[in-house]
Amino acid sequence: MNCAPTIQTWRRVMHVQAILVATDFSDCAGAAFQMARELSRKFGAKIILLHVIDLRLLERLAEHLQVQPESLIPEMREKAQQRLGDFLNRWDSGADPVESLVAVGTPFQEIAVVARDLAADLVALGGYGRHGRGPIEEVFFGSTAEKVVRLLPCPVLCVPLAGKGKE
């Protein structure tokens, strides 16, 4: 006897109408997007793609350039929007439209705020991002994915990159 729930069972249990996918443009985020796309097809849900410009990095860049951080935001938002388009060209084979957003702040906090504001039913993100698994930072602070899981009341899907994590 097969005890695995069917997609019809999940549709009755979970009412997934909006999936927020957070991206740092890494391959791991691409895998999370593809998983979200598959789920969106099965549930008939819309996808919202979010990139967060990390305020800490923005402040360091502004300090290096000797400018106010706020002066860098418009150009960084524009570049992020372009990168979201490139990301979708690379990872999305679906015909359904994807809404894209750019936020500025601390990534895990902004992901949580946007998920709540948009009433996302599911958040998908890569199990680890562009910077890989920094052992020191993760030991002391936890990964962005772990922090998002702790903050949100909705399910969070952390997708590893295929073939990774088996070291």
Provide a concise account of the structure shown:
The chain contains seven helices and five strands, in the order H-E-H-E-H-H-E-H-E-H-H-E. It is α/β, with parallel strands linked by helices.
For CATH, the homologous superfamily is named as HUPs
Order of helices and strands: HEHEHHEHEHHE
Helicity range = 40-55%
Given helix and strand content, the structural type is alpha/beta
Domain count: the total is 1
Specify Rg, calculated over alpha carbons. Answer: 17 Å
Q: Count of DSSP helices?
A: 7
How is the biggest beta sheet arranged?
5 strands, parallel
Q: Based on Cα principal axes, name the global outline.
A: globular
The CATH architecture: 3-Layer(aba) Sandwich
Secondary structure: elements and pairs:
Blueprint: H1 7-13, E1 18-22, H2 27-43, E2 46-54, H3 55-65, H4 69-91, E3 98-105, H5 107-117, E4 122-126, H6 135-141, H7 144-151, E5 156-159
Helix pairs in contact: 3-4, 5-7
Features:
167 residues; alpha/beta; Rossmann fold; globular
Please explain how this structure is put together.
- With 167 residues, this protein is of the alpha/beta class.
- The chain has helices at residues 7-13, 27-43, 55-65, 69-91, 107-117, 135-141, 144-151, and strands at 18-22, 46-54, 98-105, 122-126, 156-159.
- It has a five-stranded parallel β-sheet with strand order 3-2-1-4-5, sandwiched between helices.
- α2 (27-43) links the parallel β1 and β2 (46-54).
- α3 packs across α4 (69-91) and α5 packs parallel to α7.
- The chain is globular, with a radius of gyration of 17 Å.
- It starts with 6 loop residues before the first helix and ends in an 8-residue tail after the last strand.
- The model is unreliable at 136-141 (pLDDT under 50).
